[in-house]
Amino acid sequence: MLSKEDIAKRIAREVRDGFYVNLGIGIPTLVANYVPDNLNVEFQSENGVLGMGPFPFEGEEDADVINAGKQTITILDGGSFFDSAFSFGMIRSQKVDLTILGAMEVSENGDIANWKIPGKMVKGMGGAMDLVASAENIIVAMMHVNKAGESKILKKCTLPLTGINCVKKVVTELAVLDVTPAGFKLVERAPGVSVEHIKKSTEANLIIDGEIPEMSF
Q1: 196 with 159: CB under 8 angstroms?
Q2: Phi and psi (nearest 5°) for 13?
Q3: For 42-67, how does the pLDDT look when each residue is reduced to its tens digit (9 = 90+)?
Q4: Catalytic site residues?
Q5: Residue 188: which of 214, 153, 167, 217 has the closest Cα?
Q6: What was the pLDDT predicted at 181?
């Protein structure tokens, strides 16, 4: 099974030259570490940053330069800072080509739940609703099962929804799944993970068409 870093590496393959990319909190923040140097990519953070680079090395952190998850970040040459109103103006006007989010659940029709667990204290939804309502290309980075081994890839989400019919692709520690009109389609499997194991770990219906290749990075 893949580590969180491996999930980020696989998602980095989806980034294209010239893309403006929003990175959500959690696993998505790692993607910036693995985008090839030959690609010209602008990473945007909803707290008002454009031009994020990889995480800083230990001892080189600047506590005033952070992403939406309050993690210290680096800024590439030409990077810029602006207020939240300007940042969300970029998001709502669909200037962002790719949005990469974490999730607690994703359903087979592309619904996403990633902001609240009932009964637990949360500060608010943050920018998640704006991102899923405005983005045309959303990839989710998440774990396939929870700590109890229960599937988080579902026929229908059980947690409060963030967005409806918006997710295009899901990358987990087990598999790469495309969200199609017919449901989840298994595209790739993690090295050493069998199709049968993925099926047992998936509550939703799974479309399997032919031989499923292992992921490459």
Answers
A1: no
A2: -70, -15
A3: 999 999 999 998 899 999 999 999 99
A4: 46
A5: 214
A6: 95
Q: Binning pLDDT at 50, 70 and 90, where does residue 123 land?
A: low
**Is pTM beyond 0.85 here?**
yes
User: Hey, how many other C-beta atoms are within 10 angstroms of the C-beta on 110?
Assistant: 22
CB distance 115 to 122 below 8 Å: yes
pLDDT score of 122 more than 90: no
- 174-202 confidence digits (pLDDT tens): 999 999 999 999 999 999 999 999 999 99
In order of 9, 75, 79, 106, the CA distances from 50 in angstroms are 21, 8, 6, 28
- Candidates 48, 43, 143; CA nearest to 97 is 43
SS (H, E, C) the chain: CCCHHHHHHHHHCCCCCCCEEEECCCHHHHHHHCCCCCCCCEEEECCCEEEECCCCCCCCCCCCCECCCCCECCEEEEEEECCHHHHHHHHHCCCCCEEEEECCEEECCCCEECCCCCCCCCCCCCCHHHHHHHCCCEEEECCCECCCCCECEECCCCCCCCECCCEEEEECCCEEEEEECCEEEEEEECCCCCHHHHHHCCCCCEECCCCCCECCC
Distance, CA of 146 to CA of 105 (rounded, Å): 10
Q: Which amino acid is at 184?
A: F
User: What are the CA-CA distances from residue 67 to residues 9, 32, 163, 202 (Å)?
Assistant: 19, 12, 22, 32
Burial of residue 11 (number of CB atoms within 10 Å: 0-12, 13-18, 19+): buried
